[in-house]
Amino acid sequence: MNVTYLMQTDPLADEALFFDLYQTQAPARQKKIDRFILPKDKKLSLAAGLLFQAGLADHGLRASELTIAHHENDKPFIVEHPELFFNIAHSENLAICSFSDREIGADVEMVTPIDLELARRFFDASEYRDIVAAASPEDTFFDYWVLKESYMKATGRGFKLPLDAFRIAWAEDIRVYEDDILKPYHFYHTTVFETFKLAVCVKGEPPAMQLRFLNAASFTQSQTPHQSLTQKGKS
Predict the structure, then answer these.
(1) What is the pTM of this model?
(2) Which parts of the chain fold into alpha helices (H)?
(3) What's the pLDDT band for 232 if we cut at 50, 70, 90?
């Protein structure tokens, strides 16, 4: 079971809709939303909460009845259901929340102009060579970025694991190595909404990923309408 929920935040610019959906959130999520200053960040945080709600509902669960705690490196988990793993990410106007029955990490990034010196300084040398040799170095940079960050999150180490302490290898599938040792993780990787790179990393076998796009404008307390799409990605 591997499902990634996605939501664009543009409809949440409607203040009435934002307030109505804000009221559906658990107190902890409301406090998180309130801490943000910029409207963009508030909308992303609300979207993340709605996606988390929808994923829980598909498992017959409610956020208000669960306790969210954090591991040593701040990775969240559900106390009452440690067998259900999730991870949240967002970029610009897009939020995602991935669920799995295995350790999971997810990342999404919008492709934008980038100083490739960042890749030279912080990525593995083989990754940097691939990036600068690519037909679209910026696209390839963000391919690597989301894969690397999804792995860092899946392991629970986050940025305590340096970006150049491991390398992503592209072949028939995508694998990850630390000190030239193959690690037991696999990836789902794709492009969504034309300009967003998305990667999900899970421990164990390659994930058969289902994407579910949710529409904030039609989201209600009693119904979470979504469009399901099993989208092909390289894994």
Answers:
(1) 0.92
(2) 15-22, 27-35, 39-58, 117-122, 125-133, 137-155
(3) very low
